[in-house]
Amino acid sequence: MVKTREWVSTLEVWNPHELSVEDRALLAEAHVAASKAYAPYSEFYVGGAVRLADGNIVRGSNQENMAYPSGMCGERVAVFAAGAQHPGVTMMAVAIVSPSEKAISEAFMPCGGCRQVLVEAERRQGSPIRVLLQVRDEEVAISSSAVNLVPFAFEAFGLGGTGTNGREG
Ligand SMILES: [Zn+2]
Fold first, then answer.
1. In degrees, to the nearest 5, what angle opens at C-alpha 141 toward C-alphas 137 and 147?
2. Distance between CA atoms of 67 and 7, rounded to whole angstroms?
3. What is the CA(77)–ligand 1 centre distance, in A?
4. How many helices (H) and strands (E) does the chain have?
5. Which residues are catalytic?
6. Which residues contact 18 (CB under 8 A, 6 or more apart)?
7. Which parts of the chain sit beneath pLDDT 70?
8. What's the CA-to-centroid distance between 121 and ligand 1, angstroms?
9. Distance between CA 1 and CA 104 in Å, rounded?
10. DSSP letters of 5-40?
11. Integer Cα distance of 69 and 138 in angstroms
12. Nearest-angstrom CA–CA distance, 61 and 45
């Protein structure tokens, strides 16, 4: 008898005009960040903005490099900058946006590496990070926790977890 494991993940899709002032402000910060991206190779401009529990906002944008693997995604730059500049301060939410013409997919999502970084940030701080994703002006996809974006996330170092969603059946 083969056992199966199931992962259930839900995203809310919002009209940005119906979001809270706080969420709209965070998205605006991410758009500012995207405008400062260095992406001459991909021309895929991504901005991230992290809202911290103390009210600070930390921006990041993708930073590419001629030696391709040396570049870094915008949301990861933001999360790492928040961790470096405000160590120990809880990350409440991260907005990730791309205004690029290339970002035409309705399913604009962080790459696997960035999702794993967000999950580990959640596990370190012991509370979820809301993730707001905007690629088209008329829609914002929101996840209540980064763990919803990473089925069966890499588990190491006994960090435990907020929200283990995997179920055996
Ligand atoms: Zn990434």
1. 150
2. 36
3. 9
4. 3, 8
5. 75
6. none
7. 100-107, 156-169
8. 14
9. 43
10. EE-----EEE-GGGS-HHHHHHHHHHHHHHTT-B-T
11. 33
12. 8
For the entire predicted model, the pTM comes to 0.88
The CATH class of 18-168 is alpha beta
State the Cα–Cα distance between residues 18 and 20, nearest whole angstrom: 7
Identify the bridge partners of residue 59 per DSSP, sorted by sequence position: 49
* Chain mean position to CA 163: 17
Q: What is the pLDDT of residues 94-130, one digit of tens each?
A: 999 998 666 555 557 899 999 999 999 999 999 999 9
> Measured in angstroms, how far is the CA atom of residue 38 from the centroid of ligand 1?
14
Three-state DSSP state, 160 = coil
Beta bridge pairs of residue 134: 97
Q: Could you tell me the distance, in angstroms and rounded to a whole number, from the CA of residue 114 to the centre of ligand 1? A: 4
- Distance between Cα 169 and ligand 1 center (Å): 32
Residue located via tokens 């960040």: 33
Model pLDDT, residue 153: 83
Predicted confidence at residue 108, as pLDDT, reads: 75
CA of 111 to the centre of ligand 1 (A): 4
| Residues pairing with 47 in the sheet | 61, 97
The predicted structure's pLDDT at residue 104: 56
Rounded Cα distance between 166 and 163, Å, is 9
